[in-house]
Automatic annotation (TrEMBL):
Its cofactor is pyridoxal 5'-phosphate. Pfam families: SelA. This is L-seryl-tRNA(Ser) seleniumtransferase. The keyword Transferase applies. SUPFAM superfamilies: PLP-dependent transferases (SSF53383). The keyword Transferase applies. It comes from Martelella mediterranea. GO terms for molecular function: L-seryl-tRNA(Sec) selenium transferase activity. InterPro entries: PyrdxlP-dep_Trfase (IPR015424), PyrdxlP-dep_Trfase_major (IPR015421), SelA-like (IPR018319). Belongs to the SelA family.
Amino acid sequence: MINDITHTSVEPDWSWHDANGFKRVINVAGTMTGLGASVASVPEVARETAAATERFVDMHALQTLASDTIAELTGAEAGCMTASAGAAISLAVAGCITGLDPAHAEALPRNPGPKAGIAVQMGHLCEYGSSIKTGIELAGANVRVAGTATLCKDFQLSAVLDDETAAALYVVSHHVVHYGQIPFERFVRLAHEKGVPVIVDAASEYDLRSFLEKGADLVIYSGHKFLGGPTSGIIAGRRDLVRACYLQNIGIGRGMKIGKESIMGAIAAMRAWMKRDHAAIRAQENAALELWLDALRGIPGISAYRVPDPTGNPLERLQIDVDAEKLGAGAPVVVAAFGQRDPAIIVRGHEAELGYFQLDPCNLLPGQAPVVANALREEMMRGSWRNIDAEEALASSRNGGTDGYLHWLS
Ligand SMILES: *Cc1c(COP(=O)(O)O)cnc(C)c1O
């Protein structure tokens, strides 16, 4: 389904929000857990999800179908589905520790044994709503940090690739440090020289094949980011290790189990991805970017331009640099002001402290791009910023993710 997201004659549909009393939101931030992650990429995703809710099925058979679909999509030997990519990290780590030993799997996280280290470059120890360190440690593993925040040397990684290390984890994300880290192919070579398998967290990457082609043993993707499936995670890779990941359902995996409806919805999303008209979707996104560029032309203190995705995903965003002096407010305040509108416009503001924010067109729904364009002009011309406290707005770009949980029901 290709929606005409930029068409001015299409009214956004808020009936569901209104009927449930939810605040109307437009997502120009990207794939955000706090906004419900993604929407179904095609109607079949919703249809297959719904069909599964009304039937019983042998779950091993369903996971076999998922494995076949993941193999076709990624080129992996095998695959399995998990509750989320976050869960997949814990389960992949656990699988590398226990192999196919059910007693060992049952002993996690209490008693992981002597070979439970996970080697990670310090610059890759990021957070995506929770800390990746927590995800690793949930399996009973201990993180063996290589290097410093901004530099990892080969010998520093090699030093933690010993008999106590069960796997090495490589993270591909805009969240990680983007210089001074060991490049992927070299990371794989160093790990394999010591007989250590490599897990890749590529949760948010469009590139579904090259990490495996370049030697990764397990690769993790999110089913609900660009794939547009229901909330789910994908583990793809070596058959023996995928089986060991799946075995964790008798242990720590139980609290992270995925339902039949999410597996079927994710399979539909993977099938749709293989048939997707990527060029047509890109054209839609480009039209939205151009619409917004137009809306911002000639506003003093604002300079807007298209930027590529930092990890090489084939998409562009609109970057908006804010000259606080000329505009009368800095980027964190502008980000907060958009969030206070009705509908709330949630922009990509995690780097607002650097004086800019971005608009991501990939999750727009029909009729929403013009609403954003109007809001851009209105908000930027306003000149008064509704008593938004600049220091609080800045603090919120770091703490907001936690504060939302703390303030819930308070
Ligand atoms: C989003 C993300 C995750 C978590 O994915 P979920 O499927 O939402 O749990 C993990 N790692 C990275 C790098 C991510 O971007």
